[in-house]
Request: fold
Amino acid sequence: MGDPGLETARKEFLRAFPGFGNTSALDELRGRGYSRLNEQGHVYLDYTGGGLYDVEQVRAHVELLESSVLGNPHSTNPTSDAGGRHIDVLRASVLGFFNADPDEYVAIFTANATGAIKLVGEAYPFAPGDRYLLTFDNHNSVNGIREFARSRGAGVTYVPVLPPELRLDATGLSRQLEENSSARHKLFAYPAQSNMSGVQHSLEWIDAAHENGWDVMLDAAAFVPTNRLDLSLWKPDFVPLSFYKMFGYPTGVGALLARREALEKLDRPWFAGGTITISSVQAGRHYLAEGEAAFEEGTPNYATLPAVKIGLDHLRDVGVEMIHDRVAALTAWLLQQLEPMSHANGNPLVRIYGPVGMDRRGGTIALNFYDPGEKLVDHRAVEALANDHMISLRTGCFCNPGAGEIAHGLTEDELEAAFAGQVRMSFEQFLEALERDGDKSAGSVRVSLGLVSTFDDVYAFTRFARTFLDQPAPRMPG
Reply:
């Protein structure tokens, strides 16, 4: 017998979001290509961590491999030529998907978004007096570029996000972008969508930065799985992304979409097989290849890369706009259910970090649970209990420490104290130091929606959330 509460809630949801019916094709798709979710009883709420694949993507890739003989494209023999043709077709497909003019942009294939970000960081021509500007809520891979900048004498500046919605301090950002300086090279990096709070930052900052002489890196990894990024309208210089976050398969492939003009500014610190036209041992010289070839190190993943085009075609068939509309409706309903939940004594059950409405936000929600006495429920205990319910969510800091520090009210002094005297520290040790000295946490619970999320998924999470009502904070397992 079905859950009568589920059916009642579904009817109320459809009345509140009548446009949701226009996305019914995604329910059919889930039943056809993603049936393993229901068959195995999964409630998947970690799309920001990784997308899911349709079984037809895998079958199409296997069929292609079974019917082809592909060789290392760094040659001109027949199998190499076949491997190279697939990569050329994919490169055009990627640029087409993002409406990027091939005369203006190139697609550089990497292992993931992090690999794409590192390509920029290690080759950006930072020098003394130059600047690296970034926002508090960047992914750690973007934060890591500060080490390249600092090592070359460039200044590093963070623009904060402001609680409770964790949006950018627009006045502070404008001031930094417009500041007169003698810097020859200035790089501004920010996420189109925060992978922690789901906040979507304005793409208009791209033009504002360009007007003031900045190069712009737009981290699109959390944005593009459920939103359209049109590079004919917005012109960031560098766009890192991971394909598995968009359509699940294959993993281990990402891309850097780069403006040709910006790419010419980069100074590669080394060379490798595939990145040069010629090198000499005795002369000690080398010549880099042009365009994307100068950045694709070693043999390209020529047997796997064709699967990316299959995934892009899958998204084209489904329609990013339909995915966006579905995720927006489900996220809005979930926020409406979670935000007012409270214990019998009136104390709130959850604290949401970020917007509680759908204005300029995506389908990622970060939160923590609190018991009736307002004691924080350890996010690790929440994850352990969610596992028992076959709910896949994510907990921790999500490689986004800046947004977490602001969300949890952590001060610079508290963070310095937690780091004090440590040569190396695990995340668990860091949490223990914060909880011991300040009764605070750097971690939270994150649920995120995507391609084949359903109402049943979000309803299941609200039902799980209610199990914490009027209960003391559970002890950590083990």
Notes: The first helix runs from residue 4 to 16. The chain has two domains: 4-51+319-466, 61-316. The radius of gyration is 24 Å. The chain has a mean pLDDT of 92.
